[in-house]
Amino acid sequence: MQNQKGFNDIPLFFHENYISIENPNYSSQYHNTIIMHDCEHPIMEEHAKICTKNGGDILEVGFGMGIVASYIQKHKIKSHTIIESHPQIADKAREWALNKPNVKIIEDTWQNAYDKGKLKTYDGIMFDPSDFSKAEEILFINPKIPITKPGCILTYYNGLIFDQIMQGYKINENPENLKIPGTRYYPFKWKQNTLFHTLHQGEIYWMSEKIF
Ligand SMILES: C[S@@+](CC[C@H](N)C(=O)[O-])C[C@H]1O[C@@H](n2cnc3c(N)ncnc32)[C@H](O)[C@@H]1O
Fold it and tell me: Residue 164: in which H helix or E strand, if any?
């Protein structure tokens, strides 16, 4: 994905099954403008199970199509805070949240949200902003940053994208994108009927879980 400042200024296009950063007037499965696609439902359902295991207060980073958000809502939780930086997607998130009293939308980047003191402490975190710029070191690995309650469970998107395959990563092997120390990874089998540069490749997705 683009650097953050640029990305939030780019107009997005909302299609029936996906969101893209331009209106691709062609059906190629190889274009790299897809931000989120609903083929990722099974993965998101599993991420939601992980980050809600403790119940309590859940933080979600990156609303996208609201897929994981809707799965999170099916679990017994107290509150659900969602940080979303893109204005168009933040609008969608607010609309989605209208009848959900335990949801709070923060329109910002996760980096700013933390710096401005908008975050509290959480029992579970789902991190999927597609912006892996030092997130792990800044927000989640550094124990001095107090957003995790004891026992908080973090899960994050760990997809292998086409560009990584070009760099020598192997399909169905764990790319460990963020390489967060102390994270357990387990293989999650799913059937993907689409193939896009920017979405997970292969039938094995390495699900991530870190307990603080
Ligand atoms: C892959 S999508 C998330 C998909 C989501 N998990 C779902 O189930 O639909 C990534 C989202 O993160 C947002 N995003 C990107 N960088 C961000 C940042 N630094 N802070 C907050 N949100 C960000 C994007 O606008 C986009 O909505």
Answer: helix 162-166
